[in-house]
Structure formats: C-alpha cells, structure tokens
Amino acid sequence: MMFIKNDKVSLRVAEPNDADIIYRWENDMEVWRDSETRVPYSMRQIEQFLLNNNDLTSEKQLRMMIENVKNGNIIGCIDIYDYDEFNSRAGFGILIDEKNRNKGFAKSAIKLLLNYCFNTLLLNQIYALVLANNLNSIKLFESVGFVRCGQKKQWCKTSEGFVDQIEYQYISEKQK
To answer: According to the model, what pLDDT value does residue 83 have?
Structure first.
C-alpha cells in the first residue's frame, strides 16, 4: 500500500483504518497550538473525512500517513491543503508523533513531499506556516531549503499571549 518512499519513510494516502491514530493526534491539545484547532473532532468526523473528503482534486486537500520503512509503524502524517492547480501551489503541514521526533523522519518526509509536488503534481511552489516560537519547525524548514517570505505580527493567540506566524516558501528548481 506504499505510495512513495525513501530509505527512511514512506508516504501513503490515509485510509479509514487510520482513523484511530488520526483521532488521537487531532484531539491532542499540545498539537492544537500549531494547527489553529480549537475544538475536538469526533471519531465520526475523522471517518467521514477519510471516506469522503481526502481528495486533492475535488477537496483541495490530501492527508498522507508517514510510515517508518524499517518497521512499518505509522509515525506521523503530512497534509497538502489549499491546493491551487491554476496557480500551481499548495500549502502543507506535517506532524510527527512525539516519540519519533528529532530522528530525521520529518526531513525525509518533506523531501518526498517536495519530489511528489514538483515532479508529479507539477507545482511551482509549496508553502508552510509556522509559529515564531516553534523553533524546531523553523530549523527543519530552513534545513530543507524553505525560504522565509513573510511574517504576520501577533497573528495567533495563545495562552502565553500573541505569537507571530512565519510563512515559508519553496519554489521548484525547475521554475527558478
């Protein structure tokens, strides 16, 4: 069922049997601060999304599961959203399960995503939005070649106060 892979991770389209783990991640309040989620999702909402709405062409979004190629365990997910075929761009977000962070999985998954977006979807660019206090994500995106292109001041309200949001872009080498 693998979609694309490298020596560290594989990406595949999320399936209905992934609902349990997605439900856990989507309802983790620690993740909410980076995803702009404010209310929990029901299992039914997750299942309906996986059955009906996980379609890049019609719904402009696609969730893929990230698996560790060594043991086949699901270690995260990566979403393409705001897909704009006409302007040849999309946004993306990534989540790695807490126990698998800082092991190179996110970097490997992003490299696969870039390859898929530029060589299969033929996009010109992808972008990511990151809170200014999420130093791990900032370091990650910059390490794979994303360029900071904007900053929205006091954009996201948190329990600690307002935080800036940084926008990163990666433009296809073919278009440069």
So the answer is: 96
